[in-house]
Amino acid sequence: MKKEQLEITLADALPKDAKALLDFYKEVGAETDYLSFGAEGLGINQEQETRYIKSLEDAPNNRLLIARLGDDIIGVASVGAEQHAKIAHVGELGISILRRFWGLGLSKVMMEDMIDWAIENEILRYLRLEVSNDNMRAITLYEKYRFEKIGKTPNGMYHDGQFHDLVLMGLNVENTDQAE
């Protein structure tokens, strides 16, 4: 059997992507218990999502990366960081991919793109994330990219009728040009 070749493109989100992103979040939220939201999505409307995407233009330490197959969004990776000077150097990393595209290496490509971007970013010095302690697939991916376990939030997530600990992981992304 011949493997199908998919042409997936990566691009930063634009305001015109707001509705498609909200639809993506509803679909991906329904597929896994490991996100902080479910089939309801993010709980915001298209106008709010459009404003958020526009705000990224003025937030150089934030990014929203979209993976597309044709016109369909199949994955999203993001780094969100505060603009306050004391904490602007720490970004929260998130990644989600539609289940039918798991196992194709897309998470690796998106992770590498986001880490490279963070290393080159003039503000960011550290990425962190939280992941359910039983999401071994994600933990393995993060460890592959040198994220270290730095703590946990006991009972930080509720799914499958029970509470689960969240593992806090972090990665230093300071490049040599940033070192003082």
Automatic annotation (TrEMBL):
Residue ranges constituting the N-acetyltransferase domain according to the UniProt record: 8-174
Transferase among keywords: yes
Keywords in alphabetical order: Transferase
The keyword Transferase is assigned to this record: yes
Signal peptide start-end: none
Pfam families with a match to the protein in the record: Acetyltransf_1
Gene Ontology MF term list: acyltransferase activity, transferring groups other than amino-acyl groups
Entries under PANTHER family matching the protein: GNAT-FAMILY ACETYLTRANSFERASE, SPERMIDINE N(1)-ACETYLTRANSFERASE
Protein name: GNAT family N-acetyltransferase
